[in-house]
Design brief:
Shape: elongated
Mean pLDDT: 77
Helix content: over 70%
Low-confidence stretches: none
Number of helices: 5
Radius of gyration: 30 Å
Strand content: under 5%
Length: about 110
């Protein structure tokens, strides 16, 4: 089986160049090293018995909760809220437009 070289169009070429020209944020290397040192220290303390498994687990949970985006307000909830608001608006507008007009409202609106 012979695999042909992929054909790149202009958009692919531009995307490839853009991805290769991304600047590395300042402090990324130091932040990664610091995180790795913390994890390595926790693992060493856990293996030596100085740190209990419960403490290791709570540290891992705390680190994961900091890194995870909020589950309370994510994209799915935002889309659901927008759809519910739109549907509510449509129903309210339909109700207002289909109600019979009272004689006093007609008199007020024509004056």
């Amino acid at each position: 089986m012979i695999v042909a070289e992929p054909t790149y169009d202009e958009t692919d070429r531009r995307l490839k160049e853009a991805l290769q020209n991304v600047e590395i944020p300042a402090g990324l290397h130091a932040g990664l090293q610091r995180s790795l040192q913390i994890v390595a220290r926790d693992l060493e303390l856990g293996e030596s018995g100085l740190l209990s498994p419960a403490t290791l687990a709570s540290n891992a949970v705390a680190q994961r909760t900091v890194e995870k985006p909020s589950r309370l307000w994510n994209r799915r909830n935002a889309i659901g809220a927008a759809l519910a608001a739109g549907l509510g608006g449509v129903l309210f507008g339909y109700r207002q437009l289909t109600q019979a007009m009272s004689q006093s409202w007609l008199i007020k609106s024509t004056q």
